[in-house]
Amino acid sequence: MRILIVLFTLALFASCSENKKMIVHETPFQEKMNTEFKDASVSPLKSKDLKGFKGLDFFTYDSTFVVTASLKRTPNTEWFDMRTTTDRISKERVFGIVTFELKGKTFQLNTYQGKELSEQEGFENYLFLPFLDHTNGTSTYKGGRYIDLEIPKGNTIEIDFNSAYNPYCAYDEKYSCPIVPMENYVAVDVEAGVKAFVSVYDED
Questions:
Q1: Quick one: which H or E segment has residue 72?
Q2: Which residues pair with 100 in a beta bridge?
Q3: E-strand spans in 103-139?
Q4: What does the DSSP assignment read for 148-193?
């Protein structure tokens, strides 16, 4: 009897250790994303996908995909019509150009500021960084991914590609998502952030 108790205790301890290990290695970004996607009141998932949802698929966190970029502000740029996946037009402007090195290459991308969003309380400093890379259509969403940023006080800004996420239209075509401009192409495999979503519809 004592042996059974000891074995049960060891098994329970091992199970707890594994759970703790998973929590330790889960980033706040991943936890936040999964929490939101499980919440039916805010989740972009279709009802059928939400029923079987256990969590998004992420690349393993990789610190080499966290870069410090220089920010060249482009003041007084005009608002333009950014195309979306629907008939809706998103009023955007180029806030600035970020320059950084990734995997031994130098890249320059536009950061955008949305007119409508910038006028909402709490989003005055929000910047939008959409990008394309070599993984699109294979391990990541074919239409590219987004990164949320905030206007920095200085002329440098940290970009964490581990926080790259899919537009909502990757989960449900009813959403209207800005189409990533071709000039925001990162010519490497950005194996960081959220991977492509496989719907239960695709598995049927």
A1: strand 66-73
A2: 107
A3: 105-114, 126-133
A4: EEE--SSSEEEEEGGG-B--GGGT-TTS--BPPPTTSEE-S----S
Q: Using CB atoms within 10 A of its CB, is residue 190 exposed (0-12), middle (13-18) or buried (19+)?
A: buried
From CA 142, how far away is CA 14, in angstroms rounded?
40
In sequence order, the 6+-apart residues with CB closer than 8 A to the CB of 192 are 59, 61, 62, 65, 161, 162, 164
Average pLDDT, the chain: 88
Convert the pLDDT of each residue in 40-86 to its tens digit.
999 999 999 999 899 999 999 999 999 999 999 999 999 999 999 99
Distance CA 204, CA 200 (A): 6
Q: Token digits for 194?
A: 């959220």
Burial of 129 (0-12, 13-18, 19+ CB in 10 A): buried
- Half-sphere exposure of residue 54: CA atoms within 13 angstroms, side-chain side: 3
Between the alpha carbon of residue 84 and those of residues 43, 90, 92, the distances in Å are 20, 7, 12
